[in-house]
Design a protein that fits this description.
- The chain is globular and about 75 Å long.
- The longest helix has 27 residues, at 7-33.
- It is an alpha+beta fold and 412 residues long.
- The chain has a 5-stranded mixed sheet with strand order 5-4-15-8-11. Strands 6, 7, 12, 13 and 14 form a 5-stranded antiparallel sheet that branches. The protein has a 5-stranded mixed sheet with strand order 17-24-23-19-20, with no helix packed on it.
- It contains 7 helices and 24 strands.
- The structure holds the ligand Nc1nc2c(c(=O)[nH]1)N[C@H]1C(S)=C(S)[C@@H](COP(=O)(O)O)O[C@H]1N2 and molybdenum atom.
- Residues 89-94, 143, 145, 201, 203, 216, 244, 257-258, 260-263 line the site of the ligand Nc1nc2c(c(=O)[nH]1)N[C@H]1C(S)=C(S)[C@@H](COP(=O)(O)O)O[C@H]1N2.
Length: 412
């Protein structure tokens, strides 16, 4: 049995599975041309795992799966270093992971925000090799779904929200390597008049309640694009895996996950503001207290904390436990973390351990004397002075749940 928790092994195994999958697909495509496709498909109604919305294995001890999405189980982070290994990094797909051939792939950069005669759309193309030849940079950053923690609006605050009811596993930290978006834009001839970019994915068009919204794409202001955005082709020292955007994805540090477009196909550069469903009808705050068109498009993630424990973990009474956890914020580094084991009556400072810039790893010694049900709370404060509140401001789509989460454990 291959040890899929070892990243090198994982990559090798996946590469082999992927090639088998590709040749099977080509076979199907070729036979479809000869009118045999339906017969072949009909004779094998069972789809291989790699034909589901997510390519990588999703063992239940590492993930909770919701349709096309899978969240990391926080107990699977126990004992891990500062990075989330690919085998347990959450996946958020609007449709399904496309399998893209890097040899024929191109990135097209086009639009009125490039230099050229006024009004002329001058597409500039980059091959995968072109990008590999440009100066490379590395960056450690989290990617977090805007809806991470959404389930707690309901379970903790009694509110009705729509969307995937994630707990806290819709976040992961990776070491990304690639070329700065600024470098690519410079090569494409960025005009001083450019204001917005529209990066777009090559995955299938997204259909929501019968409406085809087209390919996943979300406007990105040019100042953020030039500041710290990466076109990543490696994740944790290996080629970007299919589920995380192969061959190239955006990594937009600190911002809502939707900004980090996977399977990048083209980037429109415009001399005027751009709109898509992903910065108008989604990824804004809606509900009481917000204008009908919603808040401004969401940018930074909020402060959050999670224990590296199973939900409803069982702990031994009369023994000192070392509880581990991580905290992170879209505003910058975490300054300190406080933990409460008595429902928030008393708080004690957790011990910060080394972490990456992207999140702080901490631990906390706790000796529960009496058997019973407890709730563990962790509350972080970031370098801008923002502390996690008791309540997250309600919004109908359940975004940005930053309140302190009450993690149930049983002491026996
Ligand atoms: N092309 C494309 N990019 C995408 C998405 C998608 O469905 N299609 N999902 C977005 C969302 S909502 C999130 S939270 C992150 C998830 O990244 P991951 O699956 O690598 O964890 O990718 C973003 N980029
Ligand atoms: Mo997301």
């Amino acid at each position: 049995m291959d040890d899929l928790t070892d990243e090198a092994t994982y990559q090798r195994v996946r590469a082999a599975q992927w090639h088998r999958h590709l040749s099977r697909r080509n076979l199907l495509r070729a036979s479809a041309g000869a009118g045999l496709g339906a017969a072949l498909l009909g004779s094998s109604p069972r789809r291989a795992a790699a034909d589901g919305p997510i390519v990588k294995p999703l063992p239940p001890e590492l993930f909770t799966v919701y349709g096309t999405n899978a969240e990391t189980r926080w107990e699977a982070m126990r004992g891990q270093g500062p990075l989330t290994p690919v085998d347990r990094f959450f996946v958020r797909n609007h449709t399904r992971t496309p399998l893209i051939d890097a040899r024929t792939w191109r990135l097209r950069v086009w639009g009125t925000g490039l230099r050229g005669s006024p009004g002329e759309e001058r597409p500039v193309e980059f091959t995968h090799d072109d990008l590999l030849r440009l100066p490379a940079e590395e960056l450690t950053a989290f990617i977090e779904c805007t809806g991470n923690g959404r389930g707690f609006y309901t379970t903790q605050q009694g509110q009705t929200v729509s969307g995937t009811p994630w707990r806290l596993g819709g976040v992961g930290v990776a070491r990304w390597r690639g070329v700065r978006l600024a470098t690519v834009l410079e090569h494409a001839g960025l005009s001083r008049r450019a204001v917005d970019l529209l990066p777009r994915g090559l995955d299938d068009e997204f259909v929501d309640k019968g409406a085809n919204l087209g390919r996943v794409r979300r406007p990105l202001p040019v100042d953020k694009a030039l500041k710290d955005v990466l076109l990543a082709y490696e994740m944790n020292g290996a080629p970007l895996p299919p589920d995380h955007g192969f061959p190239v994805r955006l990594v937009v540090p600190s911002w809502v996950g939707i900004a980090s477009i996977k399977w990048l196909g083209d980037i429109q550069v415009a001399d005027q503001p751009l709109f898509s469903p992903w910065n108008t009808q989604y990824y804004r705050l809606f509900g009481p207290g917000y204008p009908a068109e919603g808040s401004a498009p969401l940018t930074r993630q909020v402060v959050k904390s999670a224990f590296e424990l199973p939900w409803n973990a069982r702990l031994a009474a009369g023994r000192t436990q070392v509880l581990h956890g991580r905290s992170w914020s879209g505003n910058g580094r975490i300054r300190h973390v406080d933990v409460s084991a008595d429902g928030g009556a008393t708080w004690h400072r957790a011990r910060g351990r080394s972490g990456s810039r992207a999140w702080l790893q901490w631990d906390f010694r706790w000796r529960p004397e009496h058997p019973g049900a407890y709730e563990l709370l962790a509350r972080a404060t970031d370098e801008t002075g923002v502390t996690q509140p008791d309540q997250a401001p309600y919004n109908t789509l359940g975004y940005l749940f930053g309140a302190v989460v009450r993690h149930p454990v049983t002491v026996a």
